[in-house]
Amino acid sequence: MRTVRFSILAAAVVFSTGDSPDARAGDRSCAAPPCVIGQAASATPVPSAPVASYAEPGISPDGREIAFVSGGDIWTVPAEGGDARLLVAHEAEETRPLFAPEGRRLAFVSKRTGGGDIYILDLSSNAGGALRRLTFDDGLEQLDGWSRDGQWVYFSSTARDIAGMNDIYRVRATGGTPMTVSDDRYLNEFSAAPSPDGRTLAFSARGTSSGQWWRRGHSHLDMSELWTMALELPLDGRRDYTQLTSRSGKSSWPMWSGDGRTLFFMSDRDGAENLWRRPAAAGGEDVKITDFKGGRLL
User: What is the Cα–Cα distance from 249 to 218, expressed in whole angstroms?
Assistant: First the structure.
C-alpha cells in the first residue's frame, strides 16, 4: 500500500503569470512561463517541479479521518496529520468521496465505466474492501450526499432529462432503481442536501454552475438560486417547493446545520465567492460569514 507523509492538511498552489516585476525587468519575449529571466529568448525554459494536488475532502462522521482526491485516485489521511493511504486506485478518474453516516462505507464517483457512475466501498473489516457499483446511467452522475440514516444516496444526473439538464434522484444504498426526487423539465437542479430529519431537501436550481463551477465571476447564464422541497409527497401528488434566495449570483452547495434550522452555502453575489448562512425556512436574512476578496470557495 502506498503512503505519503502529511505534515499539514493543506496545499498552496502558486500560479505564475509572467507579469512579476522581475519578469518585466528581464526578457519580455518570454511567451510561456516559467522562463529564465535575463537571458536570451532562445534559452531553454526551466521546467517546474511537479506539485501534488489535494481536493474534494470528505470528513468521516467521527472527525478522525479525511478522504480526498489526488492524482485522480482516492486517499485517506488522519485528521491530525500523518501517513496518507491509497484507498481507491484505477486508470480512470475517481472523485467526490463521501463517508456514510456510520463511517463504514464510502461513496464516490468513478469514470471507469464511461460517463461517471457512483460506487460504494465497504470499509468494514469483515467486508475486505468490497466495491459495488450503484448507478448504471450513460450520463455523468454527480454525487450529492447521503441521507442521515444511511439508507439513501442522493445524486444529480443529466442522463434522463430531455433538455440535458440535471435532475435530482435518490437510490437505496443497497442498490436498486434510482427514484426521481425532482425533475422539472428545462430547469437545472443540482447540489441536493437532505435535512437531518429526512423531511426536506435543499438544492440549487437554474444556471449552468453545476458544470462550470470553476468559472470566475458570474453572468446571467450561471446564476442560481437556493430552494427547498418537502420529501414527503402530499396526497395530491404536488410537491411543496420554497425559494430561499434570489438569482443575484451563484448560490451553490447547501449544507445543513446539525439541528436542521440553518443552511450554509456558497455565493458570489457580491463579486467574490464567500460562505453564507440563512434560516432553512422562508424569510429571514442571508448573512455573509467569510470575507474573501478573490479566489474560489469550494
Answer: 6
What is the sign of the dihedral through the CA atoms of 97, 100, 104 and 110? negative
CATH class of domain segment(s) 55-288: mainly beta
Cα–Cα–Cα angle for 89, 95, 98, rounded to 5 degrees: 105
Per DSSP, what are the bridge partners of residue 59? 66
Report pTM.
Answer: 0.79
| 60, 105, 112, 153 from 132: Cα distances, Å | 20, 11, 13, 13
Q: Are 154 and 194 in contact (CB under 8 A)?
A: yes
Torsion, CA 119, CA 122, CA 128, CA 131, rounded to 10 = -10
pLDDT digits (tens, 9 = 90+) for 153-207: 999 998 887 778 899 999 999 999 999 999 887 889 999 999 999 999 999 998 7
Q: For residue 120, which of 111, 112, 110 has the smallest C-alpha distance?
A: 110
H/E stretch holding 21 reads helix 21-25
28 has pLDDT over 90: no
3-state secondary structure (DSSP) of residue 16:
coil
Q: Which run of H or E residues covers position 278? A: strand 274-279
Cα–Cα distance between 241 and 202 in angstroms, integer? 10
Greater model confidence, 297 or 114: 114
**Is residue 40 predicted with pLDDT exceeding 60?**
no
In the numeric block, the cell 463551477 is attached to 213
| Residue-range domain boundaries for the chain | 55-288
Q: How many whole angstroms separate alpha carbon 190 and alpha carbon 126?
A: 35
The residue type of 215 is R
Q: CA 105 to CA 120: how far, in whole Å?
A: 7
Q: Kindly state the cell numbers that stand for 121.
A: 466501498
Tell me what the mean pLDDT of segment 91-102 comes to: 96
